[in-house]
Amino acid sequence: MIKRKKNTLPEAGLETAEAVFGGNPILDNIVRLIGSFGFNQIVPPPIAEEKIFTQDRALERHFGQNIIRIDHPSEHLVLSPTQLLNVFKLYSQNLKNRGPFVAKWFYISPTVRSEGNQFTISHELGVFVIGEDGSLANIELINAVTQVFSGLGVKESIAEITSRGCKACQTNYREVLRDYLDKTETVLCGNCRRDMAGENILSVFDCQTQTCRSVLMSSPQLIDFLDDSCRTTLVDALETIDGLEIPYVLNANLSNHLAEEKILFRINVPGGTEEKVLGAGGNYSKLISRHFGEGAAPMLGFFTNLEELVQAVPEDRRTPLNAVEVFIIPLGVIACRRALALYRELRDAGLKVAEAMLGNQSIKHQLKEAADHHSEIALIVGQKEAMEETVILRDMRSGMQELFTNERVLDEVKKRLGK
C-alpha cells in the first residue's frame, strides 16, 4: 500500500546536481563524456501522477513504500522517484511533431525517497536509447556506459549480461520454472510464493532474500528457452562486446526490477570483499507498453546513483578531462566586463576557455585554478589593462608575461597554441 506522505520537504529542498557537485569537475566530465557518444541532455519534470506508482505492480513493488505525495486541490501527484516514464512522455511529445525517430538522451536529476520520517535526496543519472532495441542499440548503450566509466577512471568495471527473452520465450519458460519452484515452495518467502501463483512469477528473480536466491541458483535458465530472434540478438551483442574488449560475464539469473524482457545488464566494480553494483540497465519496453499502449516505441535505459558514481572515481582523476587552453583572470569590476567580452571572442574562435570572475578571488587563487585546469595560457586583465585596452598574457609553463593590445591578443594566443 502506498504511503501518502504529506511531510514537508527537508530545508535543503530538491538540490540540482550542479548545486551539489558544482565545485567538482566530475559532473562536467560526465556530461562531456556522455555527450561525446552522441547523447543529448534533457530535463524531465520532477513530478508524476500518483496512479502510475499505485496501479503498476512492478513500480509499486519497487517504489511504493518510499514515494512522497504532493498536496494538490485537483490532482494526485508525487515527486518522481525515477524519471523513466517522464522521459518516454517527452519522447512521445516529440514523436507527434517529428514522426518516428531514434533518441539518444540522458539526464541528471534529483530524486527524493522517504524512509520512515526521514527524507533521502540523491541524484539519478539516466541514459537512454528510444525507438530501437536491436543488438546494435544495446551494444551502443552498453559501450557508452562502460566507456564513460573508463573515461572517469573507474577501473576494473565488468558488465553482467543476460536476456529474459520476449513474451513467447517467457510463456514457454514460466511453466518450467513453476514446476521447479513447486518442489521448494516451503522455503520461499511470502512474496515469492505469491508471485508463483500469478503471471509475475519471473519477479522471483528480483527477490533479495538469501534463501530464495540460493534456490534460484539451481533453477532452469531462461536463456535455454530463448527463441531464434532473442537468441540471435543476445549472441550478436555478446560477440560485438567481446570484440570491443569490454569485460563481461553471462549471468543467466540476472534480474532488473523494471526491465522485464530481452537484454538486461548491470555494471559492477570492486568494492572491498565483494563487487559493488554501480548501475543497471536493460529493455524497459514492456513497462512502457503498459502505460503508453502496445504500439509504443521500444526503450533501452541505464541508471546509476550519481553520488555512488562520484565516490568510485579515483582522486587522481577528479580534474577536468580536457585541459582548458586559456584561463581568463579579471581583477576588479571593470576588468570583469572586459573579460566577459574576451571570453566570448576566444570561444567564438574555437578555443577551450575558462574563467573565475566571481567571488573576488585573489590573483594567486585564480592562477592556481588555471594550473588546476592545466591551462597553457592565462590572460590577466586588471583595471589598468581594461582602461588601456590591453591584456597580460602569461605562459603558465614558464611563468613569463607579456603585454598585448586587445586587437593582437587573439592572434597571439592562437599562434602559441599552434592554431
Write a concise keyword list for the protein shown above.
419 residues, alpha+beta, BirA Bifunctional Protein, domain 2, Rossmann fold, eight-stranded mixed beta sheet, five-stranded mixed beta sheet, 16 strands, 39% helix, 23% strand
Describe the protein in words:
By secondary structure, this protein is α+β, with helices and mostly antiparallel strands. Among the domains are: 17-153 and 269-317, 2-Layer Sandwich (BirA Bifunctional Protein, domain 2); 326-416, Anticodon-binding domain (Rossmann fold, 3-Layer(aba) Sandwich), CATH 3.40.50. Helices cover 39% and strands 23% of the residues. The chain is built from 16 helices and 16 strands. The strands form three sheets. An eight-stranded mixed β-sheet has the order 1-5-6-11-10-9-7-8, sandwiched between helices.
Can you give me a brief rundown of this structure?
With 419 residues, the chain is of the alpha+beta class. It has helices at residues 17-21, 25-35, 51-54, 57-63, 84-98, 135-151, 167-182, 190-196, 210-217, 228-243, 285-292, 306-312, 333-348, 363-372, 383-388, 406-416, and strands at 40-41, 47-49, 68-70, 77-79, 103-115, 118-130, 158-163, 248-250, 261-271, 274-283, 299-305, 326-330, 353-355, 377-381, 390-395, 401-405. It is 39% helix and 23% strand.
